[in-house]
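Aim 2 progress. For 3-phytase, the working sequence is reproduced below.
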Amino acid sequence: MNGPYRIRPLPAVSLPALALATAITAVPAAADEESGLPEITPRAETAAVHGDEEGRNSDADDPAIWLHPDDPERSLVITALKEGGLHVYGLDAESVQEIPAPAPPGEGDAPGRFNNVDLVQGLETASGPVDIAVSSDRGHDRLRIHRIDPDDPDAPLTDVTDPDAPWIFSDSQEEVNGEATAYGLTTWTDPETGRSYAVATQAARTTLALLELLPTPEGTVTYREVRTIELPGTFRMPDGTSWTPCGDPGELPQAEGLAVDPESGTLFAAQETVGIWRMRADLKGEPELVDRVREYGVPAEYDEQADECIPGGDPGYGGEHLTADVEGLAVLPDGEGGGRLLASSQGDDSFSAYDLEEVREDDEAYTGGFRVVAASEELDGSEECDGLEVFAEPLGERYPDGLMVVQDGEATPENDNEERGDATGFKFVDLADVRDALDD
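Predicted structure tokens for this construct:
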């Protein structure tokens, strides 16, 4: 049930029933015409990735944007490609470095699989402060840490993960192979103590873990668990009934997208088939549900033969802005203590924006949304978006107003190679276009 968790009162009005797909994911064909959301176009895209000849699933998922300390033109976009490892791109969206995912530790074990990535600036180490990229290795249930060298333009990332870094959610290799492992990820540095942390979610579960990053005397980085918190998996509806989001048998409604508002120390978490939660970044206190997906409260049953969830009637308890799955989250600051929280609404290929000052409180925070659509036949938009990131400072002449990078789950026209799997990639969007769409 809801337990100690706080959920805003539901609206009394009923929403029309929505057509739902696997795992309660809706893709209404007419939504594009009816929504009236502004449309913006990308300026560049990375080369599409997919499976390789060895069967590894290079599936684009999550980006991070790193500012070069001396030359903004040499800033980097670091991306997680699941079994494809990490790929690093320049601001021109051209490849700079490819880092393969780690091999399986033993025969029959799972290979490395990088799911999400984020950055820590100025981590204090034995050799001085360094910038690092922190990734969730879903295949090995560990964090992976890479030092970023601003003086190496060809291979800026070096793996500095401590070889004895512990599993995060598992107690044995057998449990790691069961894949209830590290999934979503964000980083956070406490301004009072200077200590840096990663927050990781658990695949197919509702657990979030706070992990303190710890440099070692040997120059590597490890981590320790500080605390965990559980999001609910079952919810009490206004009519007194209980609702559990439908999913594959044995799986709970997981969270993936995470973002920290550094101004307030607030963590936002996207529970994919439920909505967006707000809580303290140190995972103390009680999470509060600040917006729901449209499918919230819709009863459904898993059909084994069809391998999908079959929905019933919509009781009208859902939200108005997000269509499951709600995926990536990013904080867009305005420099004055406010700004926006951006969320990718994967089910209808849109992005929703929330006023940061209001979403920290209990006010109605939604301020609008937009879509990233094709700029030309060669440069398509973003569909079925997983991760996104924004950087709100100038990045040289190419992006003087900042940059937004979004994952594209259907990189067309290259998405027709059935032997190598779906093609995915990342789109680079001028942040000025995002602000114009949101009337900032």
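The first helix runs from residue 31 to 35. This observation will guide construct design in the next reporting period.
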